[in-house]
Amino acid sequence: MHLSTTRLATGVLLASVGATLAKTSYNLQVSYDKTNFFESFDFLNGEDPTHGFVDYVDQATAQQAGLIGVGQSNGSIYMGVDHTTVNPPNGRQSVRITSKDSFTRGLFIADIAHMPGSICGVWPAYWMFGPDWPSSGEIDIIEGVNTQTQNAVTLHTSSGCEMSNVGTLPSTMFESPNCGSESATSGCQQRTSSNQNYGDGFNDIKGGVYATEWTSDHIAIWFFPRSQIPQDIASGKPNPKSWSHPLARFVGGLGCHIDSHFTKNNIVFDTTFCGDWAGNPAVWGSNAECSAKSSSCKDYVSNNPADFKDAYWEVNSVKVYQQGESYGSPDQGNTSTSQPAPNPTPTSTSIRVSPTSAQRISQVTGIKYSTQYVPPSRVAPPNQVASPSQVAPTQARGTDLGSFNPAGSYVPQPWKA
């Protein structure tokens, strides 16, 4: 009797542990890759909210101009810029794409083989933002300007959000804990020290994986070089608790209730030129290499198209995982939403891209790109919410500010997964 009772209790305990693990482990919700990438994103066709010298074009124009493509051999996604036109009247052509799905919390695994290089005048970003900026938050995962070689990770929120950086890689510099829009630094930024996680250095090692974990407790970003991608990511069973220190970690708590400041974020890739950050006269003038090329960012970008041949994204996939027992389990508070297509226009089964355009992309990347695409389910981009104007980063103010104690001061703490 005692033995049977013990076995029963053990069985119940194991079942309970198994259920807990099932609920807390990450399950794949959606994968954006060669099978669905461009149909899963909307193209901004209009003015750049950050006032760049850029002409964002729609999907059809981008395809015809050879600005986008899908690798025939490896299935990678190409998003480039015009690098042949001198003096483009409306700015240099590029793309800014926003996912149709929005997400609240989750684990976002972006496998990126190439990003725009460390080039004067270029301002690339891989980021997320929600509606009614800044009320729903913004997460800048990869961002930099001009000849920058190290990534800067930044959060933007509405007022009343101060984060700590407990658990961040010790070499990462914390610029400011205040993420609110009222902050003089326009967000809380962590500036990294590696020369392999951004721009030319990133491309030299064939890129890698950026992993972003967004929970109610923290927003953490890891970067894994191509040769060091964890097996759990490669096998499709990511486990952040087994990883080392994140490149940047923003911790909520008494200073900031993350769930109150971040919700329904969309995924964005873009490459702009000049604008409020890269083209800021003070930023441009302080860069010896760029200012030696031209007195202004706009003049340089306008007259040197060939210099932007390397300003392209090559993305293998972006995978979104959610915690819970099933796809997008709402009872776990992990959600994704997608707006319904507004009266979709009937189209053929593919959109043709001229062989010349495909050849142009192949000349840049060395990869053969397809001349056919499955069309998007929506033919026009939605109204875009303006992203904030960016400012030049401030001087580093210290490292590892730690976590908030009840008195409101910071307490440095070691990383705990």
From TrEMBL:
Start and end residues of each stretch annotated as Disordered: 324-358, 373-417
> Which keywords does this chain's UniProt record carry?
Glycosidase, Hydrolase, Signal
User: Is the keyword Transmembrane helix assigned to this protein?
Assistant: no
GO molecular function per UniProt: endo-1,3(4)-beta-glucanase activity
Q: Where are the transmembrane segments?
A: none
Q: What class of enzyme is it?
A: hydrolase
**Domain GH16, which positions?**
19-286
- Biased composition (Polar residues) is annotated at 384-397
The region annotated as signal peptide is 1-22
Query: Recorded E.C. number(s)?
Result: 3.2.1.6
Q: Which Gene3D superfamilies match?
A: 2.60.120.200
Superkingdom classification of source? Eukaryota
- Name the coiled-coil region(s): none
What's any GO biological process attached to this entry? glucan catabolic process
Protein family per UniProt: Belongs to the glycosyl hydrolase 16 family.
Task: Please state what the protein is called.
Answer: endo-1,3(4)-beta-glucanase
Originating organism: Purpureocillium lavendulum
Name the lineage. Answer: Eukaryota, Fungi, Dikarya, Ascomycota, Pezizomycotina
